[in-house]
Structures are given as C-alpha cells and as structure tokens.
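thought: fold this chain, then report.
action: predict
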Amino acid sequence: MRAALWRVGTGLVLALAVASCGDSKSSTPTAPSVAPAPAPTPPPAPPPPAPEPPPPPPPPPEPPRLSSLSLSETSVPGQSSPTGTVTLTSAAPTGGAVVRLESSNVDGARVPSSVTVAAGATTATFTITTPTVSTRVNVTITASYAGVERTATLTVTLPALRASFTVTSPTRGADACVLIEGGTELDCRLDASGSSGAIVRWSWVLMAVERLITQKADAIFAEIDVQCRLVSGGESNTDDEGRRWVPMTISLEVMDRDGAQSPSTTKRVRLYTNGNCGFSAP
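observation:
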C-alpha cells in the first residue's frame, strides 16, 4: 500500500511539473521593479551671522574756548560806562570759566581783572569805566581764556559838547541888542559860559540882512564891532514903546581840542537900530 501511495504522489508531482512547464512557455516574463531614487540630502543651514560690535563711545566734548569779545559801544565820552561781553564756543564747565581781562590804558578805560562765565552758560558781561580824558584815547581791551585771546578797541573822547548862551543888552534887557556908536558897535553881551565840554573855540554867527561871522577863544563876546550893512535895507518893526528894531539871529557852535564840534544853537533877538544906519529914530 505504501508503494501505491508513492506512485500516486509521484504522478501528481510529475503532472504538476509538466503543467508548470507548459505555462512557462506561453506567459511573458515580468520585468523587475525599479526602486525610487532616494531624496537629495538638504544642504546644511548657514551659521547665524555674528553679532555686530557695539558702536564706539562718543568722543568727549571739546572744552570751551573763547569765541569773541564785543563792546556795547565802540566810542564813548569820558565818564561813561559801556559794557563788554565775552562769549565761549560752548557751555562753561562746572565751577564756571574765569576769563582774564586787561586794558591797554587804564587812564582811558578800566576793566575788572576777570569775569566769570557761569557753569552751563556761554556769555558773561562786565562794565568798563571811562574817566575824563584830556584828549581822544584809543584803548585796547583784551580777554583771554584757555590760551585764546580776543581784543576790542574802545575810543574814549572828550566830554560831549553842548553850546548854550544868553544875550543881554544893558538898555533893552534879554534877547536884545542896540546899535551904538553910529551903528559900528552892538551894546549886547553874548555869554556862552553855560556851554559844556572841553571847549577851545566859540564860533558866532550874527545874521540880520548880512552875516557877521567871528570866532573867539573865550566864552564871552562883548563890544561887538559891526558895520551898517548888517542891517541896511532890512525891514524894521516897532515895539510897544515905538522903538524900531530889526530881527536878527545869533548862532553858536563850540569846538574842543580834538576838533569835535557841537550842534549849532540859535536865538532870535531884536536888534534896535537906535536911529542909526538909515533908520529913523526912535
């Protein structure tokens, strides 16, 4: 029986083998499948940028220097008090900035030895004292700080000139003159002693019909010599007492030793003809 089973099994194996061979002759062989290509490896990420270095610290501020010296006035008469101003390039440091001052001629202008610019400020002002001078003086004011000097020039002049005078006739009173000595002299006295300044010359101008100009070396002008042409042909007027007079102006200018001259001062007066120079009496 065991032999019969072996024969049966062998036959089945052969039959299967024959069938398998027959099928291989009639079918198309299958191509092997291709494996997909692997994905490319991504490049490595770049390293982070290096941090920027911190900015350098700002440079320390420059110390202040002396920028300028200016004067409130550049020309003043004696006995004046102009001012000066010093200016720094930047704010004064803690404790302030002491600016040294100097005058080239203390007989013309005096300044304090120094002026302090307060901490945080850029300017300071000082007073200049000017005494009376005998002639015009140019004074150099110098300011110095931190090795820098600045200068300014102040001119100190003689006192300001002012012309002032009175006119008085011994017979007609104030603001009147009378022709006497046949019309060759005036009886009035011109007194300019009220003028001010270092005066060396008084210049007078008398004007009626013609002009009389004269210069004097003192303030009093009296016994004034004239000629009839000063009034001849002029239109006369009559006062309340019936006395004839011609209008006349008297002007005065004064000059000092430096050649400076005052503005002119003028008075209008009555010139009484007193029956002279062709005018009827009275």
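thought: worth noting. Residues 2-26 form the longest helix (25 residues).
final: tokens above.
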